[in-house]
Design a protein that fits this description.
Layout: E1 17-19, E2 25-31, E3 37-38, E4 43-46, E5 53-55, E6 67-71, E7 75-76, E8 86-97, H1 113-117, E9 121-124
Parallel strand pairs: 8-9
Antiparallel strand pairs: 1-8, 2-8, 3-7, 4-5, 4-6, 6-8
């Protein structure tokens, strides 16, 4: 007889999504190659020159200093020798735990709260 009650995985909440008051929208995006592993919850900006997404950094001046979306899953974009940009998905709207978001450089995700609100991405201080 077949055993229909095997455990095949485990779900461990990461507390990225803080609430479901605001509809969560997803969209396919293309990450710039060579950023190593980007973790779920990384805030992403879009470069003006080629439209590729990369981790938000306030010190950038290529367009990626402005947050646009939140990465849905861990993604390996490779190292400097990578030859292909990486297709993945990102959240375009929703309510997120500001303590679970990731940016590069100085500052905190909450520094982008106003800009994110204009994009229907809301932050809550959830432990």
């Amino acid at each position: 007889m077949i055993n229909l009650h095997n455990t095949i995985g485990e779900f461990v909440p990461d507390k990225l999504i803080a609430d479901t008051q605001i509809p969560i929208r997803l969209e396919g995006i293309v990450l710039e190659k060579g950023q190593s592993v980007l973790k779920r919850g990384t805030l992403l900006g879009r470069k003006e020159s080629d439209g590729l997404y990369k981790i938000v950094n306030k010190a950038s001046s290529d367009g990626s200093q402005k947050p646009i979306c939140v990465l849905t899953d861990d993604v390996d974009t490779g190292d400097d020798s990578a030859v292909k940009d990486v297709r993945t998905t990102a959240y375009l709207s929703g309510v997120f735990n500001q303590n679970a978001l990731i940016i590069e450089g100085n500052g905190e995700p909450v520094d982008f709260k106003e800009e994110l609100r204009d994009r229907s991405i809301y932050l809550e201080n959830t432990k």
